[in-house]
């Protein structure tokens, strides 16, 4: 393993350690991150997503491709993520390209979702104008009756995406602002560098 590869692995392991620490300390939603995207006209948008895995291959999350974020990522497959754990006084930002994952990966994680979440993905088109609550509940009941005890198939719009980091920045927070920031940056040659930054 080269020093450049070791630097990237160090960044990934450091991020996972922060998530694990947040989890062990009872921080709510330790896997939640703000996902920033932009459409083909560079109009920005941001919302929270659940990052299911932090791996050397990149950060894995799921999107309904008919949603606003799904359409933006089809038009402009680059994004940024920002984790923030108030209790740890830590944040991490990442930027990079977005890569669609295989059907097998999407199916694997779909099976891990609760049945209620699976049914909701079919019954409620994300971002569409919502009917009243009674109608929504009726749609779910009808779908449950149709399926019976069968497994809920994955909605074809529910896809696995991976952010391939090109920049990872650890930015400790806190009132005193004397904690050093660290930036891991992938160069055009594919090599990673590490740089300490002022707060």
From TrEMBL:
It comes from the Bacteria. This is Pyridoxal 5'-phosphate synthase. The keyword Flavoprotein applies. Keywords: Flavoprotein, FMN, Oxidoreductase. Residues 158-199 form the Pyridoxine 5'-phosphate oxidase dimerisation C-terminal domain. Pfam families: PNP_phzG_C (PF10590), PNPOx_N (PF01243). Belongs to the pyridoxamine 5'-phosphate oxidase family. Residues 22-145 form the Pyridoxamine 5'-phosphate oxidase N-terminal domain. Signal peptide: none annotated. PANTHER family: PYRIDOXINE-5'-PHOSPHATE OXIDASE, PYRIDOXINE-5-PHOSPHATE OXIDASE. Its cofactor is FMN. The keyword Oxidoreductase applies. It comes from Pseudomonas zhanjiangensis.
């Amino acid at each position: 393993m080269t020093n450049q590869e070791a630097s990237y692995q160090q960044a990934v392991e450091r991020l996972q350690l922060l998530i694990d620490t947040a989890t062990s300390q009872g921080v709510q939603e330790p896997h939640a991150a703000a996902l920033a995207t932009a459409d083909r006209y560079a109009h920005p948008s941001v919302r929270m997503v659940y990052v299911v895995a932090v791996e050397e291959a990149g950060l894995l999350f799921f999107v309904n491709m008919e949603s606003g974020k799904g359409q933006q990522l089809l038009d402009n497959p680059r994004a940024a993520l920002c984790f923030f754990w108030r209790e740890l006084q830590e944040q991490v930002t990442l930027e990079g390209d977005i890569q669609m994952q295989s059907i097998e990966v999407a199916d694997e994680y779909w099976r891990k979702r609760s049945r209620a979440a699976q049914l909701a993905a079919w019954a409620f088109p994300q971002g569409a104008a919502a009917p009243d609550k009674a109608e929504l509940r009726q749609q779910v009941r009808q779908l449950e009756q149709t399926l019976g005890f069968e497994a809920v198939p994955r909605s074809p719009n529910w896809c696995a995406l991976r952010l391939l980091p090109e920049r990872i920045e650890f930015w400790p927070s806190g009132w005193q602002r004397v904690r050093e920031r660290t930036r891991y940056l992938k160069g055009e040659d594919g090599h990673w560098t590490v740089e300490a930054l002022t707060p």
